[in-house]
């Protein structure tokens, strides 16, 4: 099996250190760190292990990362420094029974946006629900909640920050439940990948149908109080903070399993 990520693994790692991505990491850390001590965590669509390794460093007892791309998984294994993290190749849109489960927390970082339609999304949620303990928590990093993904893409282009190097999302076309887009980066490495942004009601209905019936809670993106550390002194902090705060680019959803 080869996937679109096999050929961009190394470039992807560089993109993960862009300032825009550090802003995302800040939001995830602020939300998960207080809850993660001693937890057994499943990281779906783990890629090269960016969040799997952070989850360990924030206090998780054990992390299992799963990704469809053999290239990303082999890079994740090569980069990992902890024997408390395991990486497996697997397709999260097909039924998965993960060794070591069920888990206290299931996390996904940008996996759900690979579901092109409701059926595939429902299968992903079913995997989340079946591998999560009763009373466990799901956290998902996904496109911003909206019924108009195309309109949101246009707003993101209009208010694109200049000093935060940010991945650019370009509209490709409509699909039945939303839009297809290309995520493109020029720096620090040039690459692109295709994904989907479905309407928020479709994400919610698919979660219910997949067995994740708890209440949806949104952790809205937050910027660090002082982003000088991330951006450097030269950054246009005021202008770009305003742009980032004005237009939702992503959000972290939390659903507790009943
Ligand atoms: C944008 S990357 C995110 C990687 C990692 N979570 C992170 O935040 O750095 C999306 C990942 O989802 C994986 N992926 C896409 N479709 C998948 C599927 N059906 N099952 C498992 N992984 C999938 C890709 O191979 C890729 O590594």
Amount of beta strand: 25-35%
Bulk shape: globular
As residue ranges, the low-confidence spans are none
Terminal Cα separation, in Å?
36 Å
Number of helices: 9
Question: What is the CATH first-level class name?
Answer: Alpha Beta
> How large, in whole angstroms, is the Cα Rg?
17 Å
Q: What small-molecule ligands were found?
A: S-adenosylmethionine
**Main beta-sheet strand count, sense and barrel state:** 7 strands, mixed
Question: Per CATH, what is the topology?
Answer: Rossmann fold
Structural domains: how many: 1
Query: Count of DSSP E strands?
Result: 10
What CATH architecture would you give?
Answer: 3-Layer(aba) Sandwich
Structural class: alpha/beta
Helix content: 25-40%
What's the average pLDDT? 88
The main sheet orders its strands as: 3-2-1-4-5-10-9
How would you spell out the order of helices and strands? HHEHEHEEHEHEEEHEHHE
Q: What is the CATH superfamily label?
A: Vaccinia Virus protein VP39
């Amino acid at each position: 099996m080869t996937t679109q990520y096999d050929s961009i693994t190394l470039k992807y790692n560089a993109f993960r250190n862009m300032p825009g991505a550090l802003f995302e990491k800040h939001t995830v850390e602020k939300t998960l760190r207080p809850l993660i001590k001693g937890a057994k965590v499943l990281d779906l669509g783990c890629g090269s292990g960016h969040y799997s390794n952070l989850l360990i460093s924030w206090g998780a007892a054990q992390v299992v990362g799963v990704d469809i791309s053999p290239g990303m998984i082999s890079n994740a294994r090569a980069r990992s420094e902890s024997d408390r993290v395991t990486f497996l190749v697997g397709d999260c849109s097909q039924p998965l029974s993960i060794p070591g489960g069920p888990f206290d927390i299931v996390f996904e970082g940008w996996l759900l946006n690979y579901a092109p339609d409701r059926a595939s999304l429902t299968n992903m949620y079913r995997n989340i629900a079946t591998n999560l303990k009763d009373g466990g928590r799901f956290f998902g990093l996904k496109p911003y909640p909206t019924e108009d993904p195309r309109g949101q893409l246009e707003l993101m282009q209009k208010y694109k920050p200049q000093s935060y190097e940010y991945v650019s999302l370009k509209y490709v076309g409509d699909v039945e439940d939303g839009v297809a887009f290309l995520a493109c980066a020029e720096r620090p490495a040039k690459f692109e990948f295709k994904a989907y942004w479905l309407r928020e009601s479709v994400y919610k209905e698919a979660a219910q149908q997949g067995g994740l019936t708890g209440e949806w809670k949104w952790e809205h993106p937050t910027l660090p109080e002082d982003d000088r550390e991330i951006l450097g002194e030269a950054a246009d902090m005021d202008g770009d903070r305003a742009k980032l705060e004005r237009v939702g680019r992503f959000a972290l959803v939390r659903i507790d399993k009943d």
